[in-house]
Amino acid sequence: MNDNSKLKLAIVGLGYVGLPLAVEFGKKRSVVGFDINVRRIAELQSGKDHTLETEPEELRDAKLLTFSSNPEELRKCNVFIVTVPTPIDEHKRPDLTPLIKASETIGKVLKAGDIVIYESTVYPGATEEDCVPVLEKFSGLKFNRDFYAGYSPERINPGDKEHRVTTIKKVTSGSTPEIADLVDALYNEIIVAGTHKAPSIRVAEAAKVIENTQRDLNIALINELAVIFNKMGIDTEAVLKAAGTKWNFLPFRPGLVGGHCIGVDPYYLTHKAQAIGYHPEIILAGRRLNDSMGSYVVAQFVKAMTKKRTHVDGARVLVMGLAFKENCPDLRNTRVVDIVAELNDYNCKVDVYDPWVSAEEAVHEYGITPIAQPQAGTYDGIILAVAHNQFRAMGADGIRALGKPVHVLYDLKYVLEAGAVDLRL
Predict the structure, then answer these.
(1) What is the phi-psi region of residue 370: left when phi exceeds 0, alpha when psi lies from -120 to 50, beta otherwise?
(2) What are phi and psi of 256, to 5 degrees?
């Protein structure tokens, strides 16, 4: 297949990654946006996107994009781009179930000459070792003879209105040199920032998984420094601002490390490393430290409450923010839940307030029911966990007003000045 004009696309999975991609391609060529979630399809057909990644006018502009939850609609397509989640399980092992199920669905409609491109984050080798055999089994076709594969890792940053799918450079790859060229040309139709064609699918897979592993380790270092400086009575942000005057000091900040990428991707790499007989030490050490930050925050918080002679058992605590990052409704792998769980262990009465998130989704994913609005003068302690614009606008006085005359205010995100709070990370 050398003629790009004959390509008919299907985007399989219409979440934070798939929908923006489908919309951009849908402005240029025929695209079927496919998702097994019937409610999601109905929402998109009505011109709405609850993830807020795509505006209603953008959906209207994608005039060549149609939505469906019917697998039979995929038969009209010859290029399938897979953008389903790749989470970890409760034991922090890669869960390829959504990826395998998507491959089964595509395999049942795969035809000679078709191309399957994966965007989901995986460990090196997953496309050819885990996904391709499923495609072969369900299609009866032979890889690199009858059908082909590509890998182009997603780089979506939820909630970021500046770095969009078209303005972030895209890594591409293909299972043969000719397919690699075709995949690269296809993405160049919409990616104004340009592309980087990797020499193999495995290189592209490895590049993706280390992007967030590097960030994870950098944040782990800053988190460890924050713990050290707190013990020394030194303000961490003041230290980072001072160090940041050096031209090559990296501007990372301490905090909870959640989300679908940074808190997940390193486990894909370490899983593969262990499978080939190597035990990664630095990567896992960083993961352990970042995963422990919720416990550390609550320990500091409880200590501060005790110093103010506040009875911890039964204390009313407000956690401000549940999303994994500011100004975004994304709840995937949010580590704010660690703080809530720790507070519950102390028998605190916890209210969670987040104007960005879906209460229904919070209940479904974590069993947490966010409150509609906190009441003034109610709380023995307040933890500002996410730096939403609404919280910044409240200022120290507005947030303090939610507390009782004696309360503890812990700012995890440096939203407020040091002198306006009791604790900062």
Answers:
(1) beta
(2) -80, 135
